[in-house]
Records
---
Amino acid sequence: MTISDKVENIFPTENDIPAEVRVRALEQKDYLLNGKITIWRGPVQQVFSPVSLKGKKGLTRKYLGSYPLMTEKDALEALESAVKAYDEGKGIWPTSTVEKRIACMEDFVCRMREKRSEVVRLLMWEIGKSLEDSEKEFDRTVEYILDTLNAMKELDRVSSRLSVTQGVIAQIKRAPLGVVLCMGPYNYPLNETFTTLIPAILMGNTVVFKPPKYGVLLHRPLLEAFRDAFPKGVVNTLYGQGRRIIGPIMKTGKINMLAFIGSSKVADILKQQHPAPHRLRCVLGLDAKNAGIILSDADIDLAVKESLAGALSYNGQRCTALKILFVHRSIQNEFLEKLVTRIDRIKAGMPWEPEVKITPLPEDEKISYLADVISDAKKYGAKVINEGGGMTNGNFVHPAVLYPVNNKMRLWREEQFGPVIPVAPFDDIKEPLKYVVDSDFGQQVSIFGSDETKIGPMLDTLVNQVCRVNINSQCQRGPDAFPFTGRKDSAEGTLSVSDALRIFSIRTLVATKDSDANKRLIRNIIRNRTSKFLSTDFIL
């Protein structure tokens, strides 16, 4: 069967769907507000899967359900619920002991695990992620929460002692910041959302949480878990069009911290809407245009394998994806031949199929966008060098390798966020290095080679341009214990298991002069437990 035939017949009929992965439409008519599952009686947004089904009338998108289209009034109610729960730092949650917060989160994890199959199935159907990767995302999220709990215990242990310095007795701990607005991305709607939501909650903040545009329904099975595990008002959900519901709550100035993963353009708009941007703390995961640099002495088979995984995992819809490859001209022919050969072997199909790698895309507008950037690259001299590259059917796009790309093309500077691989030849290492230096983005880069005299000096340049240099491997986020951030327009703040706890809190201390009377006072406060902050309890 040719690539053209495969693309043309990529979608199944309703009867072709295995019984074990079928999904019923979920009509979500509720949301979490002030500790209650509140019924929604207003307009709703219908949800369709990127998967289409063949029928007598052609292709029809699979209907998955609907969710509330909330208004400015509803958004302000969600915000006020979080503000009331925080209560200027006097609320039950911000004044809870670390041990109490940990217990609540452990309860949440237990409840979350019970919903694994529901969440995984919706994750697969809503964004077209393979079943295997959807299961990995859920399991990795649970693991992330458990690792965060351990990091929280260790952080509190370090803070459990008093210090005496220059005649001053003090205890230094971390305190919450206030009300946090959490907005995650559609490509990892569970995992990346929770990498900000979970530490924000654990540190004593209250939260307004808006799921991404794609990947909304998968959060519905967890509403009761949030409701039952945490005090009322700690977690409040918000659904609808971001322009309609996010602007009004930002403009109140009552959001103390913005946790957003998306485009830098949207992040700038959100920050500018806050009346006191200098008071707004932010942790932002933004755009990236990570480059892969394949040197003349690279292990070509390894470079091809890693480059392909880096460029096409989840259809290239990852901020950490390799979005442009620079290949030394002396090995370009062999590299490209092997790259194209391996692409032909990649399994494309429906998310539930075993070992599938290329699936339909959730964004409708992405199909025409990718066609536009491919056309633009051809206009300036590039060619699609793999069979069927760029062919579409519904929301499915067959991967395209474009060669040679140059600085006149949109693919040179724009983050394609899809299954398109631009490849540029180079003769002098200064060429790809200049690309990285001149780029508006500074997340990661990958180098493939074996000569330490070449790679060593490159590292010294690149570590001051990006925040992670990968040697002979694709760009990636994990392990979660490692810092995840970026320079330039790629990020603000650092996320990792331990960094996230710090970024959603601030160091606060209680201090007094070293005198007998003050020692007695501090001793009695600790002994009689009249303060939850001032404490020498040690969590095991």
Note: The radius of gyration is 25 Å.
---
Amino acid sequence: MALEYGRFYSEMAEKEKEKQASYGAKDIYVLEGLEPVRKRPGMYIGSTGVDGLHHLVWEVVDNSIDEAMAGYAKNIVVELLPEGRVAVTDDGRGIPVEMHAQTKKSALETVLTTLHAGGKFGGESYKVSGGLHGVGVSVVNALSSWLRVEVCREGILYAQEYERGRPKAAVKKVGKGERNGTKVIFDADPTIFSKIEYDWKRIVDHMRQQAYLTKGVRILLVDARNAASHSHGFYFEGGLQSFIQYLMESEKPIQKDPFYVHKEVEKVDVEAAFVYVDDMESEELSFANNIYTPDGGMHLTGFRTALTRTLNDYARKEGYVKDADENLTGDDVREGLVAVVSVKIREPQFEGQTKARLGNTEARTAVDAAVSEALKEFLERNGTDARVVIEKNLLAAKARKAAKAAKDTVLRKGALEGLTLPGKLADCSSRDAAESELFIVEGDSAGGSAKQGRDRRFQAILPLRGKILNVEKARIDKMLVNKEIRALVVALGTAIAENFDIEKLRYGKIIIMTDADVDGAHIRTLLLTLFYRYFVKIIEEGHLFIAQPPLYRLARGKEVNYVWSDKERDAMLKTMGEGTGVQRYKGLGEMNPSQLWETTLDPAVRAMKRVEIEDAVEADRLFDVLMGEEVEPRKNFIQAHATAVKNLDV
């Protein structure tokens, strides 16, 4: 399909005159070859699973976003096409096509076939860009079984096709084009990726984010994978102000007016916005050149420093804090904070191709300066908002002191007992954390069977009585009063909150083992909430699992089989024939020790699910909706998803 924009552009004004900055073959800088990509794809896109697959889309879109940030592209179209094909189109300047002096090939082919070849390593083609490493489109090409690129420049449409990174033919003129721009269509290589299936919601969320971060760009998403084609469009003029409004849709803001600043400091474009909400959790999102940096970096450090210092200065000046030695901490001022920080910087220094953290020290200085000055003015100008913010900070400080006393009590108790763990814990004999396992078991009955059926050398059992406290609705000082939670904290050995140390984790696997009924699911959810809020590093490093005990035991004579679903039961009954006895396990306590070992505890045969966090922002929002204080968001969620429920007992 040629560069056709259809109705999406029919109402658009004529594109502004071309900017004067050069963008030709001489602006393409070549650093190294493409060969390593297919051999080690994980080094370039993180993985060959679902995250890596979507990373291909982000890399191509990054190039279009870069054109938008440079002021050339106004419209971007992302299409999911039949048979796993993806197309990304923009109305930017179009990749140059003339001969490249260094490679002796077309500049277009150079960009598509050479790692670290792009217009982002020198000259004035891009003052800022998200695809800093320049590997984006070339890596996508290398990891695609087929790719076609179409470029319109100066009224001429050019095209070239590739197979697994190799050009099928030279760049050709294929017709006339009305608007400058680039279109990339690709098929991810099925020999590289474990499964080629794009998640519509993930793509919508990512593109919404990009639209918030790039004022004035129109992004159209089209899902044309089947006959029921549908689309979604984004356009935001408010930038991060619009983003903050979206993030607090399900929250109760305590401020009347969100804070916002957009300023250039020492050639770093700084944009930041925040609002305080009636909650204990914080949500801080940071971006560098429109790339989400989940691990933060210097820009987020600069924001946090400015926020803490400026609020402390204001609190002291206005008499909220009188003791010269008392200060609000970073944790105090971040409780209930919803914030977005975005910088656009000439030469960003990211950690790795997946760009999880920004390392530029000048970003910290610029954000600190911009936010400090603007926040001081904001507090002086908005007295009511300033008062409610400081009062919330002071409440958090008071709770912090109470929580510290509670934590010290728990940790001191563990030390005085010589780290001889809670009496209910049946510990393992091994002291090698790598091989040790802790089963968190629902109820004393199941705990008794598990203690008898386990391998005492490396498996520990911690039975929990009843449902633990919902930590989403309680501060840490209240949480640690709960005996079950306190026992778990001491058993893990990592301490908690700012004292948490993953290196002290006593078990390589923490396994939640509950009944396969509504109560079991509720207990499992409460435990997951606890781990996500207070032991998230345990999840991130792959230590948390959910046991999968069988639902049925089928026996006929001496033949015994266990199955995990009704479908498996029906299939097994046909295989085993008439006279087969069926036992439905309503709870773990109904299994004797040997049955529990051979189905759920034995590493050689058991099934377990590792708990992972694919999207931390969405996970945070979901825990807040389902487990938080507010009823209305939870009611709306249940109503919206009621028709998708498959099994209320699991």
Note: Confidence is low (pLDDT under 50) at residues 1-20, 120-127, 130-135, 414-419.
---
Amino acid sequence: MSVETQKETLGFQTEVKQLLHLMIHSLYSNKEIFLRELISNASDAVDKLRFEALSKPELLEGGAELKIRVSFDKDAKTVTIEDNGIGMSREDAITHLGTIAKSGTADFMKNLSGDQKKDSHLIGQFGVGFYSAFIVADQVEVFSRRAGLDASEGVHWSSKGEGEFEIATIDKADRGTRIVLHLKSGEDEFADGWRLRNIVKKYSDHIALPIELPKEQAAAEGEEAPAQEWEVVNRASALWTRPRTEIKDEEYQEFYKHIGHDYENPLSWSHNKVEGKLEYSSLLYVPARAPFDLYQREAPKGLKLYVQRVFVMDQAESFLPLYLRFIKGVVDSNDLSLNVSREILQKDPIIDSMKSALTKRVLDMLEKLAKNEPEQYKGFWKNFGQVMKEGPAEDFANKEKIAGLLRFASTHEEGGEQVVSLAEYLARAKEGQDKIYYLTGETYAQVKNSPHLEVFRKKGIEVLLLTDRIDEWLMSYLNEFDGKSFVDVARGDLDLGNLDSEEEKKEAEEVAKAKEGLVERIKASLGDAVSEVRVSHRLTDSPAILAIGEADLGMQMRQILEASGQKVPDSKPIFEFNPAHPLIEKLDGEQSEERFGDLSHILFDQAALAAGDSLKDPAAYVRRLNKLLVELSV
């Protein structure tokens, strides 16, 4: 072995120490995943070399045959994984093997469930795959040299997983990385050709790169052992380039786990080859669960991009809109330049055409899932529903299609589950109903019991109940569906159109005219607290409610703006009262102006509380209520 120089001992980042302790002492139920992770890393290293060599062919150093080799030594109890990819410099090794970027460990720890098998499969998702080596090894050595560096600039990294690692400079003739695992006592099963072959076939058969293992051969008695021969044990062809008819579901599922760093099978996938004006292949997956960074819109996301089967970019975000950022997959184009960069991708008209087609393909896949597998779609919606609600604002061209995929809670369903589609809502609509009615609020209990729903219950009209923080913003972009416009039942002057008979409309007009004096009296009492006072057509049981002006912000939008530090425009609610309610009848007959004022303000504050709003002056409300209670008890 080459002489080591510049040898030093360094400590792991604190998070790595935590992770190593976890790997060594806890995640042992599915030990074989270490090989999947190390082969996956080796595949990435080869992909990176292949891409960099497009502009710097000298990086190949005359060796263009790219591959991964897995070997073992029964006597020494070692397993070795070697690639001739991009390799690491000394600085790379310290950075990549001694630290974890972006608090990977903190997120990893937070997502642990206590189920060893599931937890061990989380490893790849958080970019900590290398450390899985310590599940089976009590010492790990890495020999590496970055392509393009001098042979004397190789690096030897070594650790026993006990809080520190050694690093030294060595001579290494070949570029790439060799990882040697010194197996723990009791892990000898992995120093076996048959066992390693099975693991490779199980997890890495789809990798588009030859994975070689030593060929099983025995020397004849009295002869020297034959020279080492290698054989490829995986298919080594890009899965997406093969005909769909030749690919088993299990192969699609394993490929997803590789690119998605996931342990669960995907909910659905779509594999297509486009020929004609544009030529490209795509393989798109809908995950079964949300990644930990789903709501970090600035987090890296996107498809793996290949050009003529050459890897170009790991997270090309230009091929799908942001609301579909959870989609995993591969796109391989024949029409893009191999030297594409993120900047070029954003300006290329070919990308716009591909993005449009791929977006439609994903939405079609989701429609199919919703139609054929409603229970699975229910699970999808729980995980990704709030992200899908970003769609109508971002993707005007597909607004109707996205709207058909949305799911809501409604007065038709108990329990508040978001399971009602707009198509189902319209199928149940009353005869003559030409609107889709909805109500937004903070919680399901609040909207379900809202006085705004009283007239709808009386008439048996279904109302959608929207309680996600994003809902009011969503509805500002979702104007209609299937030709029917949306109506917020808490906004403006409610008009039920054909759902009210002529007699009901005439009666409402007469009541409003008869109560004009009471309207003026309440308006004078409440003053600047309200923009308007009127007789309500919404109420059957409650004395009063607050409605929102047609152009005013609702409570959800006000809270979002306030939380982000933005100035919220001033607006005042509309006070509506139920003339048939005993409290309103008592108010109408009240002679004392002071008592009338107290009662009016109490009703106003109660209406605000029923709407989920906070009181401007809680102390005044309590004072007025106590005064009233004392009067009643005398």
Note: Confidence is low (pLDDT under 50) at residues 101-105.
